[in-house]
């Protein structure tokens, strides 16, 4: 792992998020930014995928169960070369293939349409079972929000995943502690998240999800686990990287105006320059 | 009167899955703790490694089926119509329909012929729900022979399919050498010039019997079997309406949103025709033996006969 390179890439992904959401005048920057380091690690370090052959049979699969953070996924896919970065500004525009939530029919690199919370994780379980039936050795990854795990379907899927001993499945929970209506602890607390997944017989890893050293260690550990699925509970900062968005529930699903966009991009430019000094 | 062979279409479904399983390795069957009732247990016994019992979790089952399809499998996901189309409606809509994944939903125990279990398990709304989903094929076979053909046609078709099967053993009515199942094509079972009865599923047989009674009274009824509700055989329906001037629809389903509504959509836009919709009249079912409920809710031979006679006169 080249940590500095990943940090620089993540900063570019964050610029893509802010740029696309600003252009769309709508979208979900908060949870896209919190997971930007996870998206970056997945596409630049972990997943066996090929932007030139997005549907190659033996690719690892990624399902963005928290589909509203599509801007984060799209920015990472564009950075990786699945489609032109210039297209990011068409996000949510009428006629654009970059739909508000991931659409597998028209977006290169998207393995599953998602957005209705709680459903992506079931599809990921289905993909992992398919691999087991066929004897394929690709792995399946899915990213959930911490608010999303309030959906009962998540636990239906978790129960089946451990019943089938899906050690080719890695569930990641982006634990940024905020959902639309506020702090998850005030809306309907899902804590303790780790104990819940333990009770569902998952191997559980708790990390700081904005720290590449910890992300790297967790993903490596997950790969070594046999006979059961793994969940990484990634503690993150919602809005990470944009000063006025950090830890603000209000930025869950709101686009920056022109002035806020300038400040956000200035924050990210500054962060990028600081990384170049390293 | 000679004994008519009776088979429940859920049996036809389960047995055909086993046949298809032998022919196609990519077929995977899912159930939600109703394998004995939906008859997917037959597939489980034959191919346990390709059978996934999701337990009592239908929403997840549909999502898992979507993932299997996205990974190249051809999943047949089964439960009662109430849970497959009802509880898991949004999963079918968003995880299967929207990405147009190759998932087949085998919904058994549809309609009031569920019988004694009563209203909570008698789904009279599934056709309405499923036909509103863009790209979804909706099939409701009338007997064993049609159900077997439907399952094979569903496999051959690439894309989401909803198949509706019954719990009750029903007479075999399509046992003839020239029987052919074509997705989206209605079947004229009886010619007639006074009225067209368009039926789907379980009541098709009763419509044929009712037509015989009507004939004895000098009313010549044409009978069409619509096994595929979506895509609908509009051409056949329009032509029949033009020929007979009056149309009756019959279904073991709510009169809201099912075959009757689909037929009215087509006719109102093409050949405005007086239509009588026979079905479940915006009420819940109740407990009772299936055959008694079919009579009570107006889907028996006499019920259909009386209503058509009054409508035509």
TrEMBL record, chain A:
Recorded hits in InterPro entries, A to Z, give:
THDP-binding (IPR029061), Transketolase_N (IPR005474)
What's its top-level EC category? Answer: transferase
GO molecular function annotation? transketolase activity
Name the CDD domains for this protein. Answer: TPP_TK (cd02012)
Kindly name one Pfam family recorded for this protein. Answer: Transketolase_N
What is the designated name of this protein? Transketolase
Cofactor(s) this protein requires: thiamine diphosphate
UniProt EC number: 2.2.1.1
What is the similarity comment for this entry? Belongs to the transketolase family.
Give residue ranges for domain Transketolase N-terminal: 9-263
Q: Which UniProt keywords apply?
A: Thiamine pyrophosphate, Transferase
Lineage of source species: Bacteria, Bacillati, Bacillota, Clostridia, Lachnospirales
Automatic annotation (TrEMBL), chain B:
Q: Which UniProt keywords apply?
A: Thiamine pyrophosphate, Transferase
- The EC category is transferase
Q: Which SMART domains does this one have?
A: Transket_pyr
Q: Name one Pfam family in it.
A: Transketolase_C
- Provide the cofactor list for this protein: thiamine diphosphate
- What Enzyme Commission number(s) appear in the record? 2.2.1.7
* Domain Transketolase-like pyrimidine-binding residues, every copy: 7-172
Annotated Gene3D superfamilies: 3.40.50.920, 3.40.50.970
**UniProt xrefs under InterPro entries:** PDH/Transketolase, THDP-binding, Transketo_C/PFOR_II, Transketolase-like_Pyr-bd, Transketolase_C
Citing just one GO molecular function, the answer is: 1-deoxy-D-xylulose-5-phosphate synthase activity
Specify the superkingdom: Bacteria
| Annotated PANTHER family | PYRUVATE DEHYDROGENASE E1 COMPONENT, TRANSKETOLASE-LIKE PYRIMIDINE-BINDING DOMAIN-CONTAINING PROTEIN
What family does the database annotate? Belongs to the transketolase family.
**Name of this chain's protein:** 1-deoxy-D-xylulose-5-phosphate synthase
Q: Per UniProt, what is the name of the gene that codes for the protein in this document?
A: dxs_1
């Amino acid at each position: 792992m080249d940590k500095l390179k990943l940090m620089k890439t993540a900063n570019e992904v964050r610029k893509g998020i802010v740029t696309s959401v600003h252009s769309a005048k709508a979208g979900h920057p908060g949870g896209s930014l919190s997971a930007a380091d996870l998206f970056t690690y997945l596409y630049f370090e972990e997943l066996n995928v090929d932007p030139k052959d997005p549907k190659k049979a033996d690719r690892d699969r990624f399902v963005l169960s928290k589909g509203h953070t599509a801007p984060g996924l799209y920015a990472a896919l564009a950075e990786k070369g699945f489609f032109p970065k210039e297209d990011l500004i068409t996000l949510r525009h009428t006629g654009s293939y970059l739909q508000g939530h991931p659409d597998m029919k028209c977006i290169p690199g998207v393995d599953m349409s998602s957005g209705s919370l709680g459903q992506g994780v079931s599809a990921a379980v289905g993909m992992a079972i398919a691999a087991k039936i066929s004897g394929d050795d690709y792995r399946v990854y899915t990213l959930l929000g911490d608010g999303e795990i309030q959906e009962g379907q998540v636990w239906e899927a978790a129960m089946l995943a451990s019943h089938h001993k899906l050690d080719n499945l890695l569930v990641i929970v982006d634990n940024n502690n905020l959902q639309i209506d506020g702090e998850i602890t005030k809306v309907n607390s899902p804590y303790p998240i780790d104990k819940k997944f333990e009770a569902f017989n998952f191997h559980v890893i708790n990390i700081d999800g904005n720290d590449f050293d910890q992300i790297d260690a967790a993903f490596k550990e997950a790969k070594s686990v046999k006979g059961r699925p793994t969940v990484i509970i990634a503690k993150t900062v919602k809005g990470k990287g944009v000063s006025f968005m950090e830890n603000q529930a209000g930025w869950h699903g709101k686009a920056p105006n022109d002035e806020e966009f300038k400040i956000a991009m200035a924050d990210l430019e500054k962060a990028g320059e600081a990384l170049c000094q390293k | 009167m000679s004994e008519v062979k009776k088979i429940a279409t859920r049996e036809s479904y389960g047995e055909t899955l086993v046949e298809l399983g032998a022919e196609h390795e990519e077929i995977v069957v899912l159930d939600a703790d109703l394998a004995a009732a939906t008859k997917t247990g037959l597939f489980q016994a034959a191919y346990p490694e390709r059978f996934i019992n999701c337990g009592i979790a239908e929403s997840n089952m549909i999502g898992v089926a979507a993932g299997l399809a996205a990974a190249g499998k051809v999943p047949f996901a089964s439960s009662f119509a109430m849970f497959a189309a009802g509880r898991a409606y949004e999963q079918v809509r968003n995880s299967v329909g929207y990405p147009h994944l190759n998932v087949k939903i085998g919904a058994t125990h549809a309609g009031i012929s569920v019988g004694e279990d009563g209203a909570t398990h008698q789904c009279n709304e599934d056709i309405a729900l499923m036909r509103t989903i863009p790209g979804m094929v909706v099939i409701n076979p009338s007997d064993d022979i049609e159900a077997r053909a439907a399952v094979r046609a569903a496999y051959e078709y690439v894309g989401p399919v909803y198949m509706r099967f019954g719990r009750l053993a029903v007479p075999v009515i399509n046992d003839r050498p020239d029987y052919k199942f074509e997705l989206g094509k209605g079947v004229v079972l009886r010619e007639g010039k006074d009225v067209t009865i368009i039926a789907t599923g379980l009541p098709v047989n009763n419509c044929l019997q009712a037509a015989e009674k009507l004939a004895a009274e000098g009313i010549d009824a044409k009978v069409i079997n619509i096994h595929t509700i979506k895509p609908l055989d509009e051409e056949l329906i329009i032509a029949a309406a033009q020929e007979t001037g009056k149309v009756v629809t019959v279904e073991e389903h709510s009169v809201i949103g099912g075959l009757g509504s689909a037929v009215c959509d087509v006719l109102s836009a093409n050949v405005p025709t007086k239509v009588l919709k026979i079905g479940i009249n915006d009420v819940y079912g109740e407990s009772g033996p299936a055959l008694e409920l079919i009579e009570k809710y107006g889907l028996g031979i006499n019920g259909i006969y009386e209503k058509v006679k009054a409508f035509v006169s």
